[in-house]
Design brief:
3-stranded antiparallel β-sheet, single chain, Glutaconate Coenzyme A-transferase, alpha/beta
Length: 318
């Protein structure tokens, strides 16, 4: 038998060919490394919603790493996750559905850039971003839509929205282009070292955004064991095989809300809005983005342990 297996390796019994132990590779990298990776790309997509679950630590790291002239595909609603990169000169192009601070008012950096025409703004809406992302995720050339845009002005405002002929009915329908990205960044409440990530809130956009991207980076409030993930695999938002890198950043969504973890820091958002509205965006960027030598120093600057504990207690009602 030995001479046969030597000449014909395919005849070796499976139990002898199988690897004795499969070593899993940790995907954890530093925040600084992640920032440099993001800054080297041309387009970035985000998850989250309004002022919730934004990958703010990664955004600040990308700005520190010199990210410029990027295209952003935001979630259908965003606040500081889109406005801060605009203020910092990180973006050249933005697909717009909604950028604002809800009851706190308009997004000042976005408003200024729109008025001065320093940002290429693609007038989109929720279906455009969601269906365009799904088209990219599925490898489709476009997403057809009928009737939706017949009574609105979006076709006149958005040159990327085209009309095509349905080959089956002969009717004209609108075609939304695919919206792929070089890198997708996501905030998770928990992730293991192998990239299995849990977002305890989310909007349902996360999986499509991940599949539509060439690279996926997850920032997590907590790094947990793979046994923790396995206890309830249904809570896994993105499986590890889709994730390239994981970054451990407790309170990394600050100043936005982290679902079921800690509250939005409304005072900090008001501080940001006051400074940017009064032409002092650079002051905010220096103090909270560029000057902190690491994430822990950032947390110190926003109030340290007393403030982060308060934000966690605000959410729990304690």
């Amino acid at each position: 038998m030995a001479h046969l297996t030597k000449d014909y390796p395919h005849m070796t019994p499976l139990d002898e060919r199988a690897a004795r132990k499969l070593e899993r590779r940790s995907k954890i990298i530093s925040l600084e490394e992640a920032g440099k990776i993001i800054a080297s790309k041309r387009s970035v997509s985000l998850a989250g919603s309004h002022s919730a679950d934004a990958a703010m630590a990664l955004i600040r790291a990308a700005i520190r790493a010199g990210a410029k002239d990027m295209t952003m595909i935001p979630p259908v609603t965003a606040s500081i996750a889109a406005d801060l990169p605009i203020a910092a000169g990180m973006l050249k192009k933005l697909y717009l559905s909604y950028v604002g601070f809800e009851y706190l008012g308009l997004a000042p950096a976005f408003r200024k850039a729109a008025a001065e025409k320093t940002l290429d703004i693609v007038e989109a809406d929720e279906p455009f971003i969601i269906l365009g992302t799904q088209a990219a995720a599925g490898g489709r050339p476009f997403a057809p839509v009928q009737y939706l845009y017949e009574a609105v002005s979006l076709p006149q405002l958005n040159p990327e929205l085209k009309k095509v002929v349905d080959p089956f009915s002969g009717r004209e329908v609108y075609a939304i282009p695919p919206l792929p990205s070089d890198v997708f960044i996501m905030h998770a409440q928990a992730a293991d070292a192998y990239g299995n990530a849990q977002c305890w809130g989310g909007t349902g956009q996360e999986r499509d955004k991940a599949k539509a991207a060439d690279l996926v980076i997850v920032q997590a409030d907590d790094i947990v064991s793979d046994e923790f993930i396995s206890r309830d695999a249904s809570k896994t938002t993105i499986p590890g095989l889709w994730v390239d890198y994981v970054v451990h950043v407790p309170y990394g969504a600050h100043p936005t809300f982290s679902s079921n973890n800690y509250a939005v820091d409304e005072d900090h958002l008001k501080l940001y809005l006051d400074l940017v509205r009064n032409g002092r965006a650079e002051e905010y960027i220096q103090k909270y983005v560029l000057e902190p030598k690491d994430h822990l120093e950032y947390l110190d600057r926003i109030g340290g342990l007393p403030r982060t504990t308060q934000l966690r207690r605000m959410l729990s009602g304690a």
